[in-house]
Structures
1.
Amino acid sequence: MKITIAQLNYHIGNFEGNLKKMLAATAKAKEQGSDIVVFGELAVTGYPPRDFLEFDDFIRSSEEVVEKLAKAAVGIAIVVGAPSRNPVIEGKDLFNSAYFLADGKIVQKEHKALLPTYDIFDEYRYFEPASTFNVVHYKGKKIALTVCEDIWNVGNENPLYTICPLDELKEQNPDFVLNLSASPFNFSHANNRIHVLKANIELYGKPMFYVNHVGAQTEIIFDGGSIVISPDGKVHDELPYFEECIRSYELNDVVKGGLNREQEKDKMTLIHNALITGIKDYFGKLGLKKAILGLSGGIDSAVVAVLAQRALGAENVRVLLMPSQFSSDHSVNDARQLAQNLNVQYDIINIQEAYSAYENMLKPHFAATTFDVTEENIQARIRGMLLMAMSNKFGNIVLNTSNKSESAVGYGTLYGDMAGGLSVIGDVYKTEVFELARFMNKDAEVIPVNTITKPPSAELRPDQVDADSLPPYDVLDGLLYQYIEKRQGPKELVEMGFDEKLVRRVLKMVNRNEFKRVQVAPVLRVSAKAFGMGRRMPIVGKYLN
Amino acid sequence: MKITIAQLNYHIGNFEGNLKKMLAATAKAKEQGSDIVVFGELAVTGYPPRDFLEFDDFIRSSEEVVEKLAKAAVGIAIVVGAPSRNPVIEGKDLFNSAYFLADGKIVQKEHKALLPTYDIFDEYRYFEPASTFNVVHYKGKKIALTVCEDIWNVGNENPLYTICPLDELKEQNPDFVLNLSASPFNFSHANNRIHVLKANIELYGKPMFYVNHVGAQTEIIFDGGSIVISPDGKVHDELPYFEECIRSYELNDVVKGGLNREQEKDKMTLIHNALITGIKDYFGKLGLKKAILGLSGGIDSAVVAVLAQRALGAENVRVLLMPSQFSSDHSVNDARQLAQNLNVQYDIINIQEAYSAYENMLKPHFAATTFDVTEENIQARIRGMLLMAMSNKFGNIVLNTSNKSESAVGYGTLYGDMAGGLSVIGDVYKTEVFELARFMNKDAEVIPVNTITKPPSAELRPDQVDADSLPPYDVLDGLLYQYIEKRQGPKELVEMGFDEKLVRRVLKMVNRNEFKRVQVAPVLRVSAKAFGMGRRMPIVGKYLN
């Protein structure tokens, strides 16, 4: 028996586009003499469809695609993820299902039992969990159909669910397991995935075909990396990362095992490629082409400019240099040098005239006050406004350049440097931004070295550096990581050796600035805990602030 | 037996404050000779605590409060909602529990079984559902403890859950039912609540004490309206709306029934008072006092100004009139008249100087282009920026004045009129804004009549009116309501009689403008489907656009 796995880049709600891709992959699988072609979880709708699932019209559109795929399932079986309706009146109205299509019709539907409802996942919002489990009989083989999370409740110290679907299915002695996934990227997730698959092999000993999505849906990035794993626990194949791929396997070869095609995984390579995928698909799927961003001469905007140029092409990226009286010469020079290195269009607009206008307009109201954060914010907002004006006039989408460290502590101006349609590095800590810059420069100096080596500064008042207002980034980032990713409280953080006063101060900054973070663009997610839909915090909360 | 229900305004994560309130209420209940005092769902933490629940430190703080309450439960029993730990390793780590405290200790914990995970609710994100159900034995009575949603799976055409906790508990023949709720306001919810309670009475025939929260937590508003209902289905008492209240009842009187204290519910009164509560608690719980907003002379900002003045007091509200060359005289006059009626500080800042500055700065880049939405947005953004500058300088929080209709179709400028810390009427359709304005004027002309009667206009270019770009609001709002609140698709909408071209156009506008709505302030929720945390839509989706 020959099995094809199709690792594709779907588009949420683009039923026609998704169908077309799957029909093409089915044709290719047939050419390769395959018996079964397997697509990802909710491949018909794209993942995550979110509250579109509450629209009956959306479900009907999905059902029509499944019907069309069923008609194409002649001479080959198609396994595809799509919502299905719960025939029982009690409980949620939908299941998250794996459809088995063959002989031109829907042969069987098996439903997802473990519904991830944490971080970015909201599946119990929409779906009823499966309560029955049946293998599919096909060409003399018994196939266990599972959907993503269904295989993730093994090998954990603290299992999230009370059951394991494969415990139920193993009674029926399946020959192999198909897993239809939509398992989003974070830089350590690919390793976790292999760990979980090996834990399943250890427990159940059946060959497994794990099929993932690839491509980004707003903030969520799918890295692909689909896996075929043999009963001997060896990775028979691992598909490429961040690209579509269709490959076929003889079941007997997989059963035999012995191959090991596990790939090297380098954190910076993964983050770099993930962010490029995130930009590319945000633009591509929204039918957009052109980006714009402000280049300050600092490292954050430099890194975003490089990513944008690599994702969209130099001809589609435009940058603005917007110096003020507080900008240093080297900032303008470094920014210009970078624009030239990247071969992108750059323009210089000095913000002084608008700044003076605001000063004049506010003078009667600001009498007897002194220069403070207000005037700093005015500068940042003039820049945000100029970028938006260019965006409105020419259709270039503004890329936001805030990093995770400053976003965490609220070191940024709402409607100023926090503006933009997409936050590119909002899930990358400042220390990681430095790593990324060095990674980008590994073959040639793309980012001027001075940009990497000079002390970070917002340049909003004379001789300002970040270190005036913030702890050193290596300390800050370590603390933020423990608080944000690891949910450690003040007591644990002090026990880890962080200074108590610093802990109190930083945690308060993080919690108090939630009001800013709710108003920013979607953040491309590369860590296990990004700001945005995966981290849901009260604003009026009084905890640790 | 005497039972006290305490309808209190909690504050998320403010453990000390919540404890203090509950101790005071307990003392009052003891004075009234009560045997039991009942607080709301998750009263210890405030509701919803959201991802604070993932912090062990947060749970420990909650446990300490429960211990302190237990110590105070001498001579009276205390029933209070708080998270508790799941002792079983499989499944979620927490339960959403009702604690029964008496004789200075924790006597019993009963857990919530039905975990709302829809709209604004994310409970399955945090909690394991109850699987066992036990009445509490106390002073010769058997008490069924339920938490909010636990009683909501009856009387519905399409039940969301497969079980009803009271079906399990009725076998143990309880004498009465306590329900600890945190049931957020929407303008039809109070009626739904009474409907559900009556459905429970019909099914189980036991007296019920339904205890709700009151007060707002960012966008979510609790209206109170706690209910005591007798076995004859009559509303024995209905507590006031939007205020704290502690009241005691003789169980025998409730069992006897015959009283009917059900209150009148008027939509505009409810919305008006809900929004005032929303503003008041946003400011109060964040330790803020003063607000600022832009007054355009139009109806949206007028209504928000009135609400702000009623919530915070005239002395804490400041308004800016920011006319441009396109502003009509009547706009400025109407705005000034309103400010005078409200007795709030107003200042006039003409935006021309900043507008000219931007024109000059952008001239070299905008050569050969014509006036379009870019220049309109620049005006809106200058206004947003002036408000933010005043906010930064003087600490007044900017109130956003966008209504639900314009937010739905994207008729607003990001970082301009869409700026602000709190969206006051973002869940109120334009036609409802008119109703609200007339409601506010019912005793005296607060809002100048001209503001209510003139055709709505953004005044961003000569002779502009909303009707140039949008369908008439009565048609638009009807369509938006069916799409947003009722999740009707294009087919159903056309069948309802809406013009097909209009349907396609409006649905596309709604879906395309999701990118704007993700960047706005929290929206005070007054309907069953508000923009924000309760409506989760993909941005790169290709559905209906």
2.
Amino acid sequence: MSEASHLTFDLDKIGISKGHLIVSKGIDSEALSLPVISLNKGEGPRLLITGGCHGDELEGPIVAQRLVEWLPEVQTCGRVIIVPVLNPPAVQASSRNTPIDGLNLNRVFPGRADGSVTERIADAVSRLLLPMADTIFDLHSFGALWEFAPAATTHPIADPDLMAKTIRMAEAFKLPMTLVWEHPETPGMFDVLAQNQGKVFVCPELGGGTVGAEALAIYEAGVRNALIALGIVKGKADYPTFRQQKSGHTFETRRSSDELKSPARGIFEPRCSVLDKVNQGDLIGILHPMESLPADAVQIRAPGTSIVYAVRSGAYVDVNEGVALLARPLDR
Amino acid sequence: MSEASHLTFDLDKIGISKGHLIVSKGIDSEALSLPVISLNKGEGPRLLITGGCHGDELEGPIVAQRLVEWLPEVQTCGRVIIVPVLNPPAVQASSRNTPIDGLNLNRVFPGRADGSVTERIADAVSRLLLPMADTIFDLHSFGALWEFAPAATTHPIADPDLMAKTIRMAEAFKLPMTLVWEHPETPGMFDVLAQNQGKVFVCPELGGGTVGAEALAIYEAGVRNALIALGIVKGKADYPTFRQQKSGHTFETRRSSDELKSPARGIFEPRCSVLDKVNQGDLIGILHPMESLPADAVQIRAPGTSIVYAVRSGAYVDVNEGVALLARPLDR
């Protein structure tokens, strides 16, 4: 029998420690070795920061690496565990799902010790890292196919106290958007597992489109703001500048009713930008059936008053593919 | 024997005509049917505008469709032929190359009437459309993996008169960058074929990253500026606003010496933005080997004074993959 998943070092050790989370060998892959950094200043908040759950969302791993550079110098208390890349095979393949078993890591929590590689990663994280934290920032993003404003998101939570605490934590990122996101596909998500254990879990959907220097600076500022709110770092939180504005708004959205879909196959032309306010009938985009002539273009219009929080990059899309996501100010 | 490639309508007809370029059936595919729009106001410049040569560069097809909407109303003279999508199978697959035969359409010109599907497209365009034009705008872009400022580009041309005319035409787009691009891989390119026939060929590399509403507006303004310079449209050309600036600069670059490559496999973190001026030793990006710890990150620095004209989006890259492209002001 192969060696069980384990950490190569003691997370309880005071100071800066670096080592690996070894995910056990299984029938479908060799053991994986995930770098882990522990910044332990003793008493205080216990935070776990993870990136690279999906292999096509690289903002998280990069922001996590940046934290490792500056956080040790300014951390005043508490414990921060950083795992820049949760799913190395998916990142290497630039693929949302793990190429080895085709699974989405964020749908298999708490995982299985004797499962396929994605399930074994989830199991190792759930058993060996999650118990060490009361707050989790799981750094996601929207990938290259969408324009999406930097946002801190949570799904709705049944427990009203935990919901309120989680929204406060998400708002502390001071990103352009805080989003309460009703998502139909919740089983097996990392946040559901953590929230069922009473933990505060925020999932910054740190943008989309090009992963560039300016976007990364906003994301990093968001995480720093959250660390200040937690009391781990001293400093003054401030809204980062996004499109020449410093502001943050809290929205809610339902994936089922607030997603606009392509009416046909063809080239989607975006006609709005993220954070645009739209009223019923406003133009969101145009669908150009490719083999027919331009007169056959189909206009996609807003069904009601809302905010655009994500819009598909111009691309060839299939019928019924999502092309825009809308939201409304959160009704508290 | 199948029907030869042909146009379904007469391009010489005065007024607005719409029809198709039929690319003949071959051993590897059925016939293709490419929508073509002819805007013929008689005497004046003869312009061919093409998009969708590469299936993962959707700015061109979208801007071409927009032209079809407004150009008929404002065109004062000349003939404009618009083909929004040159390579429908590649666009449907969101793939640079044609998925059927694996070929890059922009490497097989002038094509072959009895070749594979990509060669048959090139042949039909070369024989049936190219002779109708003295000026060609082939609307490309840099794709989702790069940040790239909207630019009008040309490769170096041996004939100094045609070179000067082509640079003037490229500069007339008034995009943030005009670029004379020494490219090692010229055989079979559409522009080489057209230039060898004495035609002015400009290849707007209309950006990169997310294909969003703001970027598309800049691209459309660039093409409108060029139409004004040609005298096809009346109006005042103006630099579009890009990153809060209105400006245009003309650069030259050598693909061989001005491309910075990844020193190892890992996650590339961009640390500069397009149009940044850099001096020798300035930080361009960081390469994070993924399985080792952050201390092993490798800094990628500028080899000399230059302008960043393209930078890779944060992503997992292989050793020796391009991560940044540099340029210098054009020495005329």
